[in-house]
Structure formats: C-alpha cells, structure tokens
Amino acid sequence: MKILIFLSLIYFYASAQQNFDDYNFIVDVDVLNHNIRASLIRRYEDQDEEPIAEFLHPLTSTEKKYSRMEKNTLGVYYALTKFNDFIDDELFTLRVYSMGKVLLDYDFVVEYKKGDFYAGDDVIMQQNDG
C-alpha cells in the first residue's frame, strides 16, 4: 500500500511539473487612484493568456499620499506576496504600467540583501569624512 501511494505521489508531481512547463506566469500590477489591482496570468506556449487569480487592495489614507513610484513598488510587493505560492522558484514576467518605461532602460538582476547591511553606507561615510 505504501509503495502504491509513493508511486502515485511521484506521478502527481511529474504531471504537475509537466503542466507548469507548458506555460509561464505573468504578474500584472496596476495602480489606480484609490486601489492597487494585481492579476496572476498564465501565458501558454501559443501566447494565449488566461487570468487565474486577481485581487484589489484599497489604498489606505497614508498610502494615497505616496508618490506614483512608491505606489507601484507597493503594488509589486503586494502582488508578489499574494501570488508567492504560484511564482516561487519560477521564472515569471512582471508587467507594470508606469514603472515599466523606467525599468526597461536598464539591464539588471534583482538580488536579495541579508540584514541591514548596505555597502553604500561606507562610501557615503567616507565622502562625509573627507
């Protein structure tokens, strides 16, 4: 019985992996006047897109005072947190509207930084001392 369950789990995992390989995810974020809207979309190999999840976050009175860039960054944060189970360890497309024009001008990699260390602090301190 245990062997049968184990083989079933292996088959299920292999099937799930195959299904994920057939499409990639798009995290679509838009900031409106009073809300952040985010959608999780899957794009198939034939380029068809299908929304599979979405949410609307009403901005608080404090968040409404944020700049456009800060609201977009907040929207990306909320979207990635909300859709983490789908996109964790997956290559995905981040689709943003107003930040996109700025970000497309650069070729960069997002890297995790542990703790409170910021390498720029040393440079700033040296400039202030000199």
Automatic annotation (TrEMBL):
Matching Pfam families: RT_RNaseH_2
Protein name: Reverse transcriptase/retrotransposon-derived protein RNase H-like domain-containing protein
Superkingdom of origin: Eukaryota
Lineage: Eukaryota, Metazoa, Ecdysozoa, Nematoda, Chromadorea
Keywords: Signal
Keyword Signal carried by entry: yes
Domain Reverse transcriptase/retrotransposon-derived protein RNase H-like: residue ranges: 22-93
Signal peptide: 1-16
